[in-house]
Design a protein that fits this description.
- By secondary structure, the protein is an all-alpha fold.
- It has one domain.
- α4 crosses α15.
- The relative contact order is 0.16.
C-alpha cells in the first residue's frame, strides 16, 4: 500500500489535487487507538470511574501498564484529531461559503452530538447497573421506571466532547473569516516549518499548558469536558492544521523531520515522563505523584507539560511522514475502514460496555482480558458502523 506510484501520477497532473490517502489511514489509526484507549479503562486504567469496569483490580503491574498506555495516548492523540480537522477546514469553507459551511458542520457534528447526548449516553450508562453493587452503590435492579428516573443524570457528552469542541472551533473559524473579510493565507508548495519554529512552538505550548493547568489540572472534568486541561494543545493544533493546509505542509514536510520528531518524542517519553512523577511508581491506591504531575503549579507539572507538548508534536511529525511514505496508495480495505472511522468514534462506547459485559465470565488476567476484548471489540465497531451507515440518510451524517 505504498504511495510512490500515486505520488508520481499526482506530479504529472499538477492541475489536479490528489487525495491524501495517508490522512484517511491515519484517522483510521487514531479511531482504533480511541477504542483501545476506552477498552483499557474497563480493565483497570480508569482514574475517574467509567461506564463499565470489570473488577477485581488485583494486578499492580497491569494497572500501571494500562495507566501508562492511557496517559501516553492522552498526551497527543486528541490533539492530532484537532490538527487533522483544522487541515481540512479552510478548503471546506472556500468551497462552500459560510452558509453551507455552517450547515454542513451542524449536520455532520451537531446531529451525532445530539444523538449521543440524549440516546447513546443513557444506553452506555446501563453499564452502571451491570457492575457489582459494591462499586456503584446501586442495589435496585434495572427497570424502565428506574432508568427513566435516572435519565436526567445519565445524559451527557461522553467522548463527543471532541465533537462539541470542534463545532465551537469551526464556528470560531467562520467568524474569523467574516471579520477578516475572507482574507486567507496564500497557498505555498515550498514553505516548511523550521526546526527553530517547531522548538519555539513546543516551548510556548508547554508554558501555556503549565499555566493553564494551575486552574484546570489534568483529571478535572469541566462542563463534561474530561480533558479540558489540554485546551491549549487542542486549540493550537487546530490552528496549526489550518496553517498547514495553506502552506501544504502535509505533502512537503521532509521525512527527516519525521525521524527527528520520533527521536524527540522517544527522548521526552524516556526522560521527561518519569521525571514528571519524580521516579515514583503508581499503585492501585494511586499516589501524590499523579497530583503533582497533573497541575497545580508544581515543577513536576512543568515537566509533564514539556513532556506532552514535545511528545505530541514529535509523534505527529513521525506519523505524518510514516503514513505518507508507506500508506499513501488507494486500497479497498483501507478505504472501507476510512469510511467507517467517524461512525466508529460515535458509536464505540455502548459497544464496549455490552461486549465487555458479555466477556465477563472469561477468567483471564487484566492484560490478557484487555487483549482479547480489543481483538473482538475493534472489528465489531467497524462492522456495526458499516451496517448503521447503510441506513438511508445516515451516510450523509456519518
Amino acid at each position: 500500500m505504498t504511495g510512490n506510484k500515486h505520488l508520481k501520477s499526482a506530479e504529472k497532473s499538477p492541475g489536479k489535487v490528489s487525495r491524501l490517502f495517508f490522512i484517511d489511514y491515519l484517522r483510521v489509526f487514531l479511531a482504533i487507538l480511541v477504542v483501545l484507549h476506552h477498552v483499557s479503562l474497563v480493565y483497570g486504567a480508569s482514574l475517574q470511574g467509567y461506564y463499565y469496569v470489570e473488577p477485581p483490580f488485583t494486578s499492580p503491574n497491569a494497572f500501571v501498564q494500562l495507566l501508562v498506555f492511557v496517559l501516553l495516548n492522552q498526551g497527543w492523540f486528541m490533539g492530532a484529531f484537532f490538527l487533522l480537522a483544522g487541515y481540512f477546514t479552510p478548503g471546506s469553507y472556500d468551497r462552500k461559503g459560510i452558509g453551507a459551511f455552517i450547515k454542513d458542520k451542524l449536520v455532520r457534528l451537531g446531529i451525532p452530538l445530539i444523538g449521543f447526548y440524549f440516546m447513546l449516553s443513557p444506553i452506555s450508562f446501563i453499564g452502571f447497573w451491570l457492575m457489582p453493587a459494591e462499586l456503584t452503590g446501586i442495589t435496585n435492579p434495572l427497570t424502565w421506571a428506574g432508568f427513566w428516573g435516572a435519565y436526567p443524570d445519565i445524559i451527557g457528552l461522553g467522548p463527543l466532547w471532541f465533537v462539541a469542541m470542534l463545532l465551537a472551533f469551526n464556528f470560531g473559524y467562520a467568524a474569523w473569516r467574516m471579520l477578516t473579510k475572507n482574507q486567507k493565507l496564500p497557498q505555498s508548495k515550498s514553505s516548511v516549518p523550521s526546526y527553530l519554529g517547531i522548538g519555539i512552538f513546543i516551548l510556548a505550548l508547554a508554558g501555556i499548558s503549565y499555566l493553564w493547568r494551575t486552574v484546570v489540572p489534568l483529571g478535572k472534568s469541566v462542563w463534561q469536558f474530561p480533558t479540558l486541561a489540554y485546551l491549549p494543545q487542542y486549540l493550537s493544533f487546530f490552528v496549526i492544521g489550518i496553517i498547514a493546509s495553506r502552506k501544504n505542509w502535509f505533502r512537503t514536510i521532509p521525512g527527516s523531520m519525521g525521524l527527528v520528531g520520533f527521536v524527540a518524542a522517544a527522548l521526552a517519553g524516556i526522560i521527561l515522563f518519569p521525571l514528571a512523577f519524580s521516579g515514583q511508581m503508581f499503585s492501585l491506591e494511586l499516589s501524590g505523584a499523579l497530583d503533582s504531575a497533573f497541575g497545580n503549579g508544581t515543577w513536576q507539572s512543568a515537566a509533564y507539560a514539556l513532556w506532552d507538548s514535545t511528545f505530541a508534536v514529535g509523534i505527529f511529525l513521525a506519523l505524518i511522514t510514516l503514513f505518507r511514505r508507506f500508506f499513501n496508495g488507494e486500497n479497498k480495505f483501507g478505504r472501507f475502514l476510512a469510511q467507517q472511522s467517524y461512525a466508529v468514534y460515535i458509536i464505540h462506547i455502548p459497544l464496549i460496555v455490552f461486549l465487555a459485559y458479555g466477556l465477563r465470565g472469561i477468567e483471564l488476567v487484566s492484560l490478557q482480558k484487555f487483549g482479547l476484548a480489543s481483538a473482538i471489540i475493534v472489528p465489531t465497531c467497524f462492522a456495526v458502523a458499516y451496517i448503521i451507515r447503510k441506513i438511508p440518510g445516515i451516510s450523509k451524517v456519518l
